[in-house]
Q: What sequence folds into this?
């Protein structure tokens, strides 16, 4: 037995390392009911509604100028800090779209830019492209297109021609789009979001806040878990 | 490579003919194994973060994105952390075998740790002078490798 003990320890460590790696790779599918303790979800909400138990639309706590989608009286506010070039953000996009469809009147989504310039060379330009489209009233359309076409432009040597193609697809004024995408005002708009991210302690993407509570990556990017958390928020508001 | 060598000084002093005592485990080697395991966990975390494309959250330093997103974080298309994980696992295995008395494993461990330390110095140089940014997980790995060097030297000194 003692002769085999080192081998058993080594094989055990290998299995633990591989198992741990696999667990980190795949967000848990079974943690839905127990992961977020009720107390922690209620604390930020209580902070948002001091001295009252009356439900108040969470969207009211969003800074002016924030890109919002959904009804202003929706009881659940989901805020996302994202980078258009970040693969997990692209993975999260269809999950969120599906939930927006399911909770059409109850879920409001806020989007904040957090381009990780050092890792993703086109991230800042993509953020500016969305903002430039926003000046022509098509922020969300460009937002969706950038995520849906992420694989197409993320590895392109230059992304601008593709962004122009998307702008054309959306029927934007290309001359204005080209001017706006490089404007200082647009850059500052993106920087404002980045500053807001820093102020809230956001350091990675996607970072999701649900009615003010920051979710763990595994909570946010797992459809079932996120849906359960939204349900919990809705139940708490009733 | 014997898992239960009889040439360890610690075992020589503890074993008597006719007795069935379990082999004494080298504490320094066991400590090296624990450290290598910590390094393995660190490297596995960074490998997974790299493969999933997530941006690593730096809580102590602020340069994780700069360091882990740099060209130096990838070798031949594979994340550098993956090679780190393999090195730490090998170091762990050798340390375990050495802890149970294998001299040869101890010698291999010394060579491996020397190579890892050389790589660590190179990576520290890159962080300090080329990237001018520090990643806390890389610094933790550097600390672990440095401690492994100290242990390897201490093992040699106590022989």
A:
């Amino acid at each position: 037995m003692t002769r085999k003990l080192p081998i058993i320890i080594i094989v055990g460590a290998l299995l633990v390392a591989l198992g741990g790696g696999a667990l980190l790779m795949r967000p848990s599918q079974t943690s839905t009911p127990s992961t977020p303790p009720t107390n922690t979800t209620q604390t930020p909400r209580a902070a948002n509604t001091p001295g009252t138990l009356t439900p108040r639309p969470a969207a009211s706590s969003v800074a002016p100028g924030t890109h919002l989608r959904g009804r202003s009286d929706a009881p659940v506010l989901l805020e996302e800090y994202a980078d258009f070039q970040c693969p997990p953000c692209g993975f999260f996009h269809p999950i969120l779209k599906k939930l927006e469809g399911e909770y059409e009147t109850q879920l409001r989504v806020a989007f904040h830019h957090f381009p990780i310039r050092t890792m993703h060379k086109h991230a800042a330009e993509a953020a500016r492209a969305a903002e430039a489209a926003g000046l022509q009233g098509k922020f969300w359309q460009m937002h969706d297109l950038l995520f849906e076409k992420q694989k197409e432009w993320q590895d392109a040597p230059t992304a601008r021609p593709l962004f122009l193609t998307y702008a054309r697809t959306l029927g934007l004024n290309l001359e204005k789009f080209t001017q706006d995408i490089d404007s200082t005002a647009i850059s500052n708009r993106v920087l404002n979001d980045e500053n807001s991210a820093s102020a809230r302690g956001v350091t990675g993407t996607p970072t999701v806040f649900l009615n003010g509570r920051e979710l763990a990556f595994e909570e946010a990017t797992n459809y079932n878990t996120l849906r359960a958390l939204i349900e919990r928020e809705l139940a708490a508001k009733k | 490579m014997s898992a239960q060598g009889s040439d360890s000084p610690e075992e020589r002093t503890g074993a008597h003919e006719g007795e069935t005592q379990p082999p004494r485990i080298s504490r320094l080697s066991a400590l090296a194994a624990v450290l290598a395991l910590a390094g393995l966990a660190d490297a596995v975390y960074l490998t997974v973060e790299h493969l999933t494309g997530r941006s690593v959250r730096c809580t102590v330093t602020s340069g994780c994105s700069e360091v882990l997103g740099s060209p130096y974080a990838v070798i031949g298309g594979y994340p550098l952390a993956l090679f780190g994980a393999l090195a730490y696992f090998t170091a762990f295995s050798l340390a375990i075998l050495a802890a149970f008395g294998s001299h040869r494993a101890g010698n291999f461990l010394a060579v491996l740790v020397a190579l890892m330390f050389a790589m660590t110095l190179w990576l520290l140089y890159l962080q300090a002078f080329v990237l001018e940014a520090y990643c806390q997980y890389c610094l933790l790995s550097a600390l672990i490798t440095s401690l492994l060097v100290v242990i390897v030297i201490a093992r040699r000194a106590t022989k």
User: Anything to note?
Assistant: Strands of chain B lie at 74-75, 78-79. The radius of gyration of chain B is 18 Å.
